[in-house]
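Supplementary Note 2. Why include the ligand at all?

Several targets in our set were suspected to adopt different conformations when bound, so apo predictions alone were not considered sufficient. For every target with a known small-molecule partner we therefore ran a joint prediction. The input for flavin-adenine dinucleotide is given below.
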Amino acid sequence: MSALSYAAPSTVQDAIGLLSGAKGIAKVMSGGTDLLVQMKMGRLKADLIVDTKKLPGIFGITESAGVFTIGAATSGAQLGEHEGLKAAWPGVVEAANLIGSTQVQGRASLAGNLCNASPAADSVPAMIAAGAVAVIVGPNGQREAPVETIVVGPGRTSLAKDEFILQFRLPARPARSSDAYLRFIPRTEMDIAVVGCGVSVTLDAQGVCTAARVALGAVAPTQVLVTAAANALIGHTLDTATLAAVDAAARAACNPITDKRGTIDFRIKIAGVLARRAAKIAYDRAGARA
Amino acid sequence: MTYVGNKADLKVVGTRPVRPDGVDKVTGRATFGADFNLPGQLVGKVLRSPHPHARIIKIDASRALALTGVKAVISAEDLPNIASEEAFVGEGPMNFRDLSRNCMARDKVLYEGHAVAALAATTEAIANAALALIDVTYEVLPFVIDVNEAMQPGAPLLDDNMYTANVEPKPTAPSNIAKRVHFKKGDVAAGFAKADVIVSGTYNTEAVHQAYIEPHAALATANADGQCTIWASSQGHFMIRAYVAKLLGIEIANLRVIPAEIGGGFGGKTVVYLEPLALALAQKSGRPVKMVMSREEVFRASGPTSGASMDVKIGATKDGIITAISSEMRFQAGAFPGSPVQPACMCAFAMYDLENVEVTGYDVISNRPKVAAYRAPGAPIGSFASESAIDELADKLGMDPIVLRQKNAVNQGSKTHYGVTFPEIGYEQVLAATKAHPHWSAPLGPNQGRGVATGFWFNIGGESSAAVHINEDGSVSVATGSPDIGGSRASMAMMAAEVLGIPVDNVRAIVADTASIGFTHVTGGSRVTYATGMATVQAAQNVVADLKKRAAMIWDISPDAVDWKDGEAVPAGANAGGFDPLPLAAIALKAGRTGGPIGSEVSVNAQGAGPGFGAHICDVEVDPETGYVTVLRYTAVQDVGRAIHPSYVEGQIQGGAVQGIGWALNEEYIYNAKGSMDNAGFLDYRVPVASDLPMIDAVLVEVPNPRHPFGLRGVGEVPIVPPLAAVANAVSHAIGIRMHDLPLSPPTICAAIDAKG
Ligand SMILES: Cc1cc2nc3c(=O)[nH]c(=O)nc-3n(C[C@H](O)[C@H](O)[C@H](O)COP(=O)(O)OP(=O)(O)OC[C@H]3O[C@@H](n4cnc5c(N)ncnc54)[C@H](O)[C@@H]3O)c2cc1C
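The joint prediction is reproduced in C-alpha cell form.
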C-alpha cells in the first residue's frame, strides 16, 4: 500500500516547489472539508498533501481604498465576523456562511469551495456576481484571473498542477451597491444547492440599476455568469416587467441535468425564481446604502 | 394489586425523574456496538455485490489470502446451507433460509450491496485492500426494482420456485408475488351501491430507512472449546443468539450475547447482518473479529421498509356514514418475502367501524435490500392511503374530517375487518381531544394548509424476563432482557420503585446479557414497558411478599399480620402488635439471618396489550413557486393508557412524528437506471434536520388498559402512523391539489402545481 505524505510549508516558494516536484497526485489543502472527506470515502487517492495554512497572507481580510483582499484559506466563520466585509458584500458573506454546519464553518474556505469545482458550490456564484478576482501563485510568479475562469468542469480547474490561489480581491463599491445570494435546498440546512444564484447591483439615486452581475450555480457543468440577466436589470427599476425578464434570462442560461437532487424542469424553473428573489434582495440592500 | 383508576395514589409512576442513561450519553461514555474491543482482534469487512441481480459463477479468494495480514475469508460455502423454516424471534416473520442467504448470498446476488464474501485482517487498510483482491465472476441477470413492474408477467424472476401463497387455485407459473393476503367483511358491492359519495385513488410511497444514527456493529469470539460470545447493539440480544446459533449450527448454551447501548433501531435492529459473519470469521481465524458497517452499507445492505402502491376506494352516505371500503396494497418486500403488507391491510382501516370492507395485499419481491421492521411495520404506509382517502371524502362531503371520523369511529366492542373485537380503547377520546385542541381551530394564512390523520397500532405483549434484587444496603437492582431503546430502564426502575414504595433513586435498572436473565423477546411491537414491565412488577411484588415474611420473622408474628407501606413493613393493625415500622434497608441488612438474599426473577408471556390510537394535526406553508414545504405547527394526540415517565412518552411521540414527517416530505430510496441506489448517505437521503421542524406538541390522553397493573399501553409505534397522511393532507389543502405520491419533495409539488396551471 502506498504512503501519503503531508507538508505544511511556511513560504509560498516552498509550497510551489513541493507541488512542482511531486510525483503522483499532489493536492493543496485549505480547510480540508472537501479534500479529507473525499479521501476518506475513497473517491480521491493523494500521494502528497500540501497544507496552505502556514503560508503568510493565506488567512485574513484587509481593506484598502474600498478593495477587500481575502486570504484564500480564510474560514467562513471569519468572513461572517467581519463587519466591514458584511456591510460591503453581504451576498458573498451569506453565501460563504451557508456552507455546512458551525463545525464546517470553522474550516471551510473560499479557495477550497472554488477549487473543489463542484457546480453546486455556494460561494462561487456570489463571488462571480461580485466580480471577484483570484490571485494565483505558481512557478512563474503571480497572476490574477476572474473567478469565473477558474472552474472549467465538474472537479476540474484552470490552475496548473503547481499553481494555487493565495488570495481573492473584491473590487471597490460605488454608493448604492449591494449583492445577495440565495440557494434552493429541500431542507433548511446541511444540504447541497439544487440551484444557487448570486446577484450584485449598483443603483442610481432613482433606484435605476446602472451595473449588475448575475451568476447561477448547479444548473450547468460550471457556474454561469448570466450576462442577459444582468442586461435585463441594467437601466431598470425592479418592476414586474424587469423581474419577468430576469426570470426568463436566468432560465435560458440553464443547461442542467436530472439527478437525485432535482429534475431539469425543476432546476430551470427555480433558477428563474431565485434570480428574481435575489435581485429583489440586492436592490433593497443597495437602496439602503445611499 | 391493581393501581388502575387511582392515579393520585401513585408516587413514582407519572413523574419525570432524570433519565438514567442520559449522563453517559451526553458525556460520550455510553458504550455502543462499535465501542467494544478485545486484545488481538481482527477487522472484518464484507465484499458486496455491485449488481442488482446476478448469478455467482465463481469466488476466488486466493489473491486476498496471499496478502500479509489477511487471516480468513468466508463465503456462503463456509456456512451451513439452511433449509426453509419459519422462525419468530424478531419483529416479523422470518425464514431462516432467507435470513441466511440475506446475510451471505448463495448462488445468486439479489440486490446491489448483497454480501458475497467476508474477510478478516489485522488492520482496516489491509482488509480494504484485500476486498479488492477477491475475484468474483458473475453472470449478470436482468433486474426489476419497481413493485408494479415486478408483478407483471414476464418480469425478471428472483426465485424460480416462488408460487404465490394463499391463492386458489395454486398458480401454475412462478412469479415475484410471494404471498396474497385478504380480509373481507360484509358485501362491498352492496355497500358501494348504498353510497352517495365515492372517492378512489392510487397512492404510492417509496422505500425509506429507519436511519438510526448508530450503524450495525458486532464483535465476536469463538473459543477453542466451542464457547462463543458476541457483543453487539440490537433490539434483542436473545434474537441475535437464536439467529446466529441457527445460522452457524451452534448450541444455544454455547453462545452468549452481550448487549451494547443502542444508538437507535426503530425495528431495523430486529435482525442480524454482521453478527453471524463476525462469528464465522472468528471461528475460522481463531481470533476475535470486529465488524462495523459504514453508513453506505447501512443504506445498501440493511433493511429499509417497503415502498408501496395502493388503491383505495371509499363510499359513504351524504351524512358521512361509510358504507364500503375496498383496497389493494402492493408492497415491496425487497429481495426476499416478508413485507409488512398484512399489518398494513389490517391497521389502515382499523379506526373505522365498517360493515363492508375488502382488502387485498400482495407481498412482492424485487431487486432491493430485504426489508426490515420499521416502527409499526406497514401501518404508516397503508394509513397514508386510507387516511388520505378519508380526507378526500371529508372534502367532498364538505364535512369536518374529525367529525367524519367520529361518525365512523371504532369503540369498545367494535369488530374489525380482520376479526378482532376491540377491548377498552381510546380512539373516541383521542378524536375529542384533537377536536378540542386550540390548534384545530387556529387561523391559517395564505398558501397554508391544515391536515389531520389518525392511526392505529396493535401493540403486543409476549415473552419477557425481569429480576429484582434487594442489595445489602437496601438499594435495589433491576435486570431485564430488554434492550433499552426508548427509556425502559427508567420505566422499569419507576414501576419497581412504585411497588416497593421507595424513591426511584434507590433503584438501578440494567439490561442483562443472555446468560444472566431468562429469555426475552425483542424490543419491538411497543411491548417492553408493557410485558417486561409486567415481569418487573410481578418480581417486585414477590419481593414485597418476601419482605413482609422477613419482617414477620423478625417480629415473630404471622406474615398475614404485616402490611407493606411506603417502603416499610408495618403491623397490619392494632392486633398485630405494637412494632415500629421496619424500613426496607433494615430488613435487607438482616437478610442473612432471615433466610438469605432477597430477590425474585419472573418470566412471563404477557397477554392483553392495549391497542393504541393517535391523531395528528399538521399545518404547512407551501411556497407556490418552488414547492418548498415548511411545517408550521404540529400536534400529536395519543391514547397512552398511562404514561409511566411522561417525558419519555412525549419523546416517543415527538420522535415518531418527526420520522413520519421525514417520510412524507423528503426521504426515499432513489434508484438509477442500473438498479443501484443513488443516495446511500445522509446528504441525499434527507431526514429532517432540527431546524426543519416546529416543536411537536405531544398531547397524552390516558384511557387505562385494565390488563396492566399501571394501565399502560405501548406508545412507541402509534406516533409514526398518522404523520404521512397528516402532512400530505395539509399540503393537499395548501395547494388545492390532492397529492397521491410520497415523498412530497419540492420537484413533485412543483410539477403538480405546474400541471394544474
Ligand atoms: C458536512 C459538510 C457540509 C457541507 N456543506 C456545503 C454547502 O452547504 N455548500 C457548499 O458549497 N459546500 C459544502 N461543503 C463542501 C466544503 O465544505 C466546501 O466546498 C468548502 O468551502 C471547502 O473548503 P476547504 O477549505 O475545506 O477546502 P479543501 O477541502 O481544503 O479543498 C477543496 C479543494 O480545493 C483545493 N484547494 C484548497 N485550497 C486551495 C487553494 N488555496 N488553491 C487552489 N486549490 C485549493 C483542494 O486541493 C481541493 O481539491 C460541505 C462539506 C461538508 C463536510
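The longest strand of chain B covers residues 322-334. Chain B touches chain A at residues 125-126, 129, 625-628, 665-666, 670, 678-679, 683-684, 686, 688-689, 691-692, 745-747, 750-751, 754 (CB under 8 Å). Comparable summaries for the other entries are listed in the accompanying table.
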